[in-house]
Amino acid sequence: MQRRSGHGGYTLKYTFTPSSFEKDAEPNDNKGEGTEIAIGETVQGHLGFRDATDNVDDNDWYKIEVPGDGRIDLVYDLDQTNELAINWMDVRWYKASNDDYPSRESTGWYPKANDTLSVTNAGKGTYYIQMQRKSGHGGYTLKYLFTPSKYSN
How many other CB atoms sit within 10 Å of the CB of residue 59? Predict the structure, then answer.
């Protein structure tokens, strides 16, 4: 507080309300730092919050292992209290872990709260999920489900 002119007293009160979503494990801001999620596991994360050096967390990456041919379902929900909007959510498969460009991707553009992104023809391998913030800030949940193909290969 800095006085510009005049005089008088004031009262200042500090309150803090934590997010109801747990913070994701950092660092996970790029594919190489992706946090692994097991089948059936639900993770929580934050996007759009600033740290003490004014950096904003705009991306979270996750890594999943697909055990065979089947369907991937990513069930997610977004915190709407602070208008968190996700620009896109990608599921990407790379031929090698050091590749920069995906050989395949399934994208949910501007996903809404409480929805599912599915890849119905996923093959065995390692996939990466990117959550990229568009605007706002808040938390989210993400659950990885896998349904094996009915017929063997």
Answer: 16
pLDDT tens digit sequence for 97-108? 556 655 555 555
User: Can you read off the two tokens belonging to residue 43?
Assistant: 């993770």
Q: Are 136 and 83 in contact (CB under 8 A)?
A: yes
As a whole number of angstroms, the distance between CA 17 and CA 98 comes to: 40
β-strand 115-122 against 125-135: which pairing, if any? unpaired
Looking at the DSSP bridge assignments, the partners of residue 129 are: 62, 91
Selection from 34, 120, 108, 33 nearest residue 76 by Cα:
108
Quote the pTM value: 0.80
Q: Is 9 helix (H, G, I), strand (E, B) or coil?
A: coil
DSSP conformational letter for 39 = T
